[in-house]
Automatic annotation (TrEMBL):
The keyword Signal applies. InterPro entries: MFP_Cation_Efflux. One of its GO terms (biological process) is copper ion export. GO terms for cellular component: outer membrane-bounded periplasmic space. Keywords: Signal, Transport. It comes from Rugamonas apoptosis. This is Efflux RND transporter periplasmic adaptor subunit. PANTHER family: CATION EFFLUX SYSTEM PROTEIN CUSB (PTHR30097), SLR6042 PROTEIN (PTHR30097:SF4). Coiled coil: none annotated. Residues 1-31 form the signal peptide. GO terms for molecular function: transition metal ion binding.
Amino acid sequence: MTSIPTHPAARRGRLLLLAGALAAVFSSAGARGATEELIKLDAAQRSRAGVQTVAVGAAPAQDGATSGQQLAGTVVAAPEGTAVLSSIVGGVIQQVHVSPLQDVRTNTPVVTLFSQQLVEWQRDYLQLATQATLTKQKLARDEALFADGLIARSRLEESRAAAMQASVMASERRQALRAAGMGQAQLQRLQEQQAMSPALTLTAGAAGTLLELPLSPGQRVEAGVPLARIAKSGALWLELQASPQLAAQLRVGDAVQVAGCGAARVRALSPQLDAGNQSVLVLARMEGGDACLKLNQYVQATVAAKPAGGVQLPSSALVRRGAASFVFVQRSTGFAAVPVTAAPAGADAMWVQGALPAGSQVAVRGVAAIKGAWLGLGAEGDK
């Protein structure tokens, strides 16, 4: 066979092309391996681990329509941030222990009442507690007699019913005294010494600031009437006004910035317009820097830009390995650990960016078991 001579330069060119192609293939495979690691879990293992997933939605369009927009509003107490102090018994104010706008701690004495109704409740409790003790003793005797065959079962059942009824009635009155403000030590002393007292000291049920305290010694108050209002210590909220066009582009979890006072997260948007100014009410919760804000203060908040290409996922989907963040995306034979970058999107949500096509199933429960298998600890249920 006759060989065809090949120019050395051409041969070197073909070798370089082949090497480049092979390098590209291996580089692509290596890149995918670095992007995600597969954790193999079959259906039975997923079920035992309690794994649940959610579908990834499409990333929102980033047209900058809301970024930088201004929202005017007012600082308000959190919906759960106001406590009312009242008494379930009526009486006369004997002493006021604090002043309006004073900071108080939990169980700080606020006001002392003189209540004849409280004395009547204590008397009823002592009578019912004594009756419960007697019926319990009678039940013990009847159980002994029944065991010896000296009484019929019907008499034993009557004793049991009477003892239960007396115990329930005494417990009900005891709970009423606890609700009125009597402590465990006071009730114990009442039962042991039969020392009834008309004085009742009401204490703050939460730490915070006394906003209202319209009381003075000698004033008569009725049962159930609010005696004081306490603004609890904690995060403040913003009631912001947005135009219908801007509100249509806002989502729960979006960030708004109050100049010099930190960020807030949108927690709710009203489904209706305000009749007076045709605006939409937006509720946002401050995440920090509350010291610079006061209740009823007027503020201007700026809508922050959303992460480009990010999707919102529950915080429970995110796992960390060293300084890196990952989510577990379902595959046919298990889950892939997909690296992501994340930013807060609310109390229980995150903005996540990564290789997460719309429709991907991301684990949100049983994540600890998947992470254990990923780190070589074994899937839950396999140990």
